Amino acid sequence: MAKTGKKAAPAKAPAKAASEQAAGPDGQAAPATKAATAKAEAKPATKSSPVKTAGKSTPTKTASPKAAPAKAAVSKAAPAAKPVATAAKRLPKALTALAAGLPKKPWLKSYPKNMPAEIGVLPYSSIGDFLVATCKQFSAQPAFTCMGKSISYADIERLSAAFGAYLQSKGLQKGARVALMMPNVLQYPVAMMAILRAGYTVVNVNPLYTPRELEHQLKDSGAQAIVILENFASTLQAVIARTAVKHVVVAAMGDMLGGLKGTIVNLVVRRVKKMVPAWSLPGHVKFNAAVKAGASLRFTPAIVTADDVAFLQYTGGTTGISKGAVLLHSNVLANVVQNALWLEDAYTIKPKPAHPNFICALPLYHIFALTVNALMGMQQGARNVLIPNPRDIPGFVKELAKYPVHIFPGLNTLFNALLNNEDFRKLDFKPLILTLGGGMAVQKGVAERWKALTGCPVTEGYGLSETSPVATANKFSASDFTGTIGLPLPSTEIAIRDDDGNNLPLGEVGEICIRGPQVMAGYWNRPDETAKVMTKDGYFKSGDMGFMDERGYTKIVDRKKDMILVSGFNVYPNELEEVVAQHPGVLEVAAIGVPDEHSGEVPKLFVVRKDPALTAEALTAYCRENLTGYKRPKYIEFRTELPKTPVGKILRRALRE
């Protein structure tokens, strides 16, 4: 485990392995020397990808209640991979009793034909090794395309090595955190791959963050370097002096577009659209200059292990305090394998194209696009078509018209916006193999309209930053929208539990809890917060309420946490209330989410004035300065008092009624 700013990453995280099962299918502790189901012996049909799957289950480790994060099971480049343990172990008696109420795994009987129950041992120790292998395998094929410019797999390998060498020349030690604050531009995958190959940790940052939000994330992560698009450099300028950031690399939209086109794009962005506020960051280096400098240096790939930290993916979790979910190389690699296996089911309906095209409209700094688009896309040898601004629907549709679209991950709001565009309805949808919905609930009406137009159903999945992210998905061969979040992916277990941690029968509503190799190691430097969401038997408590039916499909019915979901982004009432409460004219404030036909939900504030002259317009302006766009309240209601419990806690549920 790479070290944190103080000590090693959270000590209370569960033990994990690529094919870990702490209990047998009947819920009792059992040796894992046999496959959980006969289906585990089947292998996927594809032979083109570098990610391998296991022909059978491997022995596993079990978690001790006080165990620190165990090393995940991965093989290294050398000879044959070793299993996690030479002999299966039984759970301690207390944990066996806790697991005794688990129902059998009903989802296995609903699995697609030939889908293995377990992913087996991972073939790579690090994401860097995995990506280099894909670059060698698909060297001549386009890997990423943005604004008409493509870079091949060979290009991204070469450019990432050069940028990695530049970072190493700055004296950064293994495990150093490097922040990425960019939208979907070609520089993102180059920088991401470079950071991981050089042995550092990627800290993904939303480029729309306000100075307050950016400062918190940079301080909390201890980032020493940042790669940022110039459009957002003024935000960094406002806070950099109060952070540990010493190395700044500034990119521009046209940097990698080449020649005249790149120059024109930069001119339009800076001078015509005026999208780059004035900024000053003494000592910064331009992205192209850093790559050029690194190309003349020797790049030394770092020795990275499966239990080193790959990403700090920030999330509010269940409390609203922005925390870094510690995603190890093994966590993310496991989820790539899980998703790649599940994707094989889609190819039973339509064969895999020789050169697949993935549409990447979701931001790469978001865990959904990072894993499903960037990483699984590369595993597939696909071209990812990067969309820097998906809100520009006419421009987005023009990009879609240029390529046969095969795989399309997206959000309900995005699908809805496209369906309302006349030019989108004129596109050729015959190549479309899979539409994957995530980030927020897909509405039935949108799903029905999408299928009627494209002939392809929206297949819904579910996950969180803490699960790298995908935990469940509907079968990709399904012909209709199910309205559920689907089945647990291979090597993933779902338990529905009550407030006391007891397993509930099928059909009963409880908290959705997740166990599998993709579950995070914990929250960065926050062992107490980690302990709140991780159970002794290794499950992550999602905070979402749902039930599992007899077929093994799970349906979400409510959120235990008060999180507001705005176009797939988590908005936490605690954060909104903390920010708004600092306004001198506010006495009390409460935030809730209310339905919105465009974004699913939007924030609404209930405010008790301290200053009788305070207006909604003034408060809106204040929020604009302190909160990024999707967090800003759409509605503000003033009240003389707020409903409270006998001990004085504001009752948000009463405000929803």
Automatic annotation (TrEMBL):
NCBIfam families: PRK07059.1. This is Long-chain-fatty-acid--CoA ligase. It comes from Mesorhizobium qingshengii. PROSITE patterns: AMP_BINDING. It is a peripheral membrane protein. One of its GO terms (cellular component) is membrane. GO terms for molecular function: ATP binding; long-chain fatty acid-CoA ligase activity. Residues 575-649 form the AMP-binding enzyme C-terminal domain. The keyword Membrane applies. Residues 134-524 form the AMP-dependent synthetase/ligase domain. Pathway: Lipid metabolism; fatty acid beta-oxidation. Its cofactor is Mg(2+). It is found in: Membrane. Belongs to the ATP-dependent AMP-binding enzyme family. Residues 7-47, 56-75 have a biased composition (Low complexity). Residues 1-75 are annotated as: Disordered. Its main location: membrane. Its EC number is 6.2.1.3. Keywords: ATP-binding, Fatty acid metabolism, Ligase, Lipid metabolism, Magnesium, Membrane, Nucleotide-binding. SUPFAM superfamilies: Acetyl-CoA synthetase-like. It holds the Pfam family AMP-binding_C.
